[in-house]
């Protein structure tokens, strides 16, 4: 069985397989679309990591260019309307920005993401790799509709098995599987999200064969936390800070200037992981003058504090530790803290985590590959015990109070698989169907993302907000039962068994209590209507 793991990231995408000879994870390199990131360890040893920049450009006649070609050729500078970036974040969002009409085709975030991943899939097949299993990594706080999108995408790739795993949980497995019984916390801070997972593994039994010598383990997710903030927000904050300092507005620098400044901000941010100060020049297309953007580590840390990013990091760490403590696990019992994602290279981020857990526990070995490689460790995991990050609830409208209330089905923190049964009545004489507004409810921390008239992504400070996501993509109510004969008020009419299966899909089994007919059997809620 050939398994491919795809870590679809906001800034970079990493694809890996298990090598047939060594049984070790290997990151795939795709000529032309891969960017080689140079890494250096404490001993001074350097190596290169192939990643695919998550960029897509639509040329004339809907010809697609992706990855490093887009970045190196700076496609989109003269035709920004044809350039797509940060589309993973848009795909995750509840209310997505309208698609762009290009050469007669409407490109929304779902289509762009699908085309991007399918182009990479073609690159995999061209290397004579024939996958029969694909593992996609997803943010800890991903909602059900985002997971459904990946399941549908996996089915279109015609592989026999599709698995989804939290990004930070995958990275934890990468380390914990090697040391069964260990307690590992992963802080995954990438381009779009901050995810934390605390995972423990238990050795079950070794499996020996002439070709394999593996330890099979059971993994348990003990605590997790997340926030929708990442490196792309930091780039925007750097540019906004610079424009304030020179008393300029985004409108004054223009669309091309804004994109140039975002590229420079990313370069400065990366350089400041190694240097105390950095500067870059940029050419303003509006006034035809060369300008200089200078940034120090102290200034960057001040920006992060002002935007409450470091405070949000402290909160997510506190939340994970509090959840672990409620299960009888103290902070001192955490054996290893693994930093993953490009934003973990920021010195201020590392300093905060080092002071929180102690420098000796913290490691930053594979910041860009740990998630993809860790996803492959699922092949060695007999069972992964996980719990719900969000609550499932029925949303009810209260006409007297003019607001919504929520009837919980499964509370956040519930271990799944799990199930419960409700009996429902009809509301009016002759009612022919029972409809429920069912979705996920979560307390989210996010940088509010807004778009200006040119479609440029802007931002504000981090904020906590209660968020409800209907399981129906078009936000229409879910019909759980069609009634024949029509219902009469007063008596229980249908019995609905709700179930969250091992793949975190909400299913329903519906029985008509009057006719004793089984109307629906274990069908996904979002597809009932």
UniProtKB/TrEMBL annotation:
Keywords (A to Z) from UniProt: ATP-binding, Chaperone, Nucleotide-binding, Phosphoprotein, Stress response
SUPFAM superfamilies associated with the record: Actin-like ATPase domain, Heat shock protein 70kD (HSP70), peptide-binding domain
Gene3D superfamilies (UniProt xref): 3.30.420.40, Actin, Chain A, domain 4, Substrate Binding Domain Of DNAk, Chain A, domain 1
GO terms for MF: ATP binding; ATP-dependent protein folding chaperone
PROSITE patterns documented for this protein: HSP70_2
Keyword Cytoplasm carried by entry: no
Family of this protein: Belongs to the heat shock protein 70 family.
The protein's name: Hsp70 family protein
Source taxonomy: Bacteria, Bacillati, Cyanobacteriota, Cyanophyceae, Oscillatoriophycideae
């Amino acid at each position: 069985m050939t398994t491919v793991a795809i870590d679809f990231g906001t800034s970079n995408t990493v694809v890996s397989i298990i090598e047939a000879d060594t049984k070790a994870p290997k990151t795939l390199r795709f000529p032309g679309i891969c960017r080689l990131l140079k890494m250096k360890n404490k001993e001074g040893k350097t190596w290169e990591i192939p990643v695919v920049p998550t960029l897509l450009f639509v040329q004339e006649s809907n010809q697609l260019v992706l990855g490093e070609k887009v970045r190196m050729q700076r496609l989109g500078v003269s035709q920004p309307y044809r350039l797509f970036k940060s589309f993973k974040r848009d795909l995750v969002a509840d209310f997505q920005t309208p698609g762009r009409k290009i050469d007669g085709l409407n490109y929304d975030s779902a289509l762009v993401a699908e085309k991007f991943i399918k182009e990479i899939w073609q690159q995999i097949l061209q290397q004579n790799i024939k996958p029969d299993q694909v593992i996609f990594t997803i943010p800890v706080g991903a909602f059900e509709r985002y997971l459904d999108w990946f399941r549908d995408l996996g089915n279109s790739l015609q592989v026999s098995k599709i698995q989804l795993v939290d990004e930070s949980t995958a990275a934890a497995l990468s380390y914990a599987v090697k040391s069964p019984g260990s307690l590992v916390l992963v802080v995954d801070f990438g381009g779009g999200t901050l995810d934390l997972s605390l995972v423990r593994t238990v050795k079950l039994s070794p499996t020996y064969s002439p070709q394999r010598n593996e330890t099979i383990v059971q993994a348990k997710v003990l605590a997790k936390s997340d926030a929708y903030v990442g490196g792309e927000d930091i780039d925007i904050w750097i540019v906004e800070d610079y424009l304030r300092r020179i008393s300029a507005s985004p409108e004054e620098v223009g669309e091309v200037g804004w994109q140039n400044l975002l590229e420079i901000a990313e370069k400065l941010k990366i350089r400041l992981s190694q240097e105390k100060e950095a500067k870059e020049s940029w050419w303003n297309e509006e006034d035809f003058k060369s300008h200089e953007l200078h940034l120090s580590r102290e200034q960057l840390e001040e920006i992060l504090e002002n935007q409450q990013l470091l405070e949000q990091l402290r909160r997510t760490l506190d939340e994970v530790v509090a959840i672990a403590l409620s299960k009888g696990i103290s902070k001192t019992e955490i054996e290893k803290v693994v930093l993953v994602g490009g934003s973990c290279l920021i010195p201020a981020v590392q300093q905060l985590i080092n002071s929180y857990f102690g420098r000796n526990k913290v490691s930053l070995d594979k910041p860009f590959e740990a998630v993809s490689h860790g996803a492959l460790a699922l092949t060695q995991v007999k069972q992964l015990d996980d719990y719900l990050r969000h609550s499932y609830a029925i949303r009810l409208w209260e006409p007297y109070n003019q607001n919504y209330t929520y009837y919980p089905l499964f509370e956040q923190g519930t271990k799944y698989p799990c199930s419960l049964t409700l009996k429902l009545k009809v509301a009016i004489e002759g009612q022919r169907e029972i409809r429920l507004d069912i979705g996920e409810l979560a307390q989210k921390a996010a940088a509010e993302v807004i778009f200006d008239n040119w479609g440029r992504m802007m931002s504000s400070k981090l904020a906590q907000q209660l968020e409800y996501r209907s399981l129906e993509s078009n936000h229409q109510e879910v019909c759980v039962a069609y009634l024949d004969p029509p219902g009469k008020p007063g008596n229980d009419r249908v019995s609905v068994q709700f179930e969250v299966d091992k793949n975190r899909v909400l299913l329903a089994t519906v029985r008509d209590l009057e006719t004793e007919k089984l109307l629906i059997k274990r069908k996904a809620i979002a597809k009932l209507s």
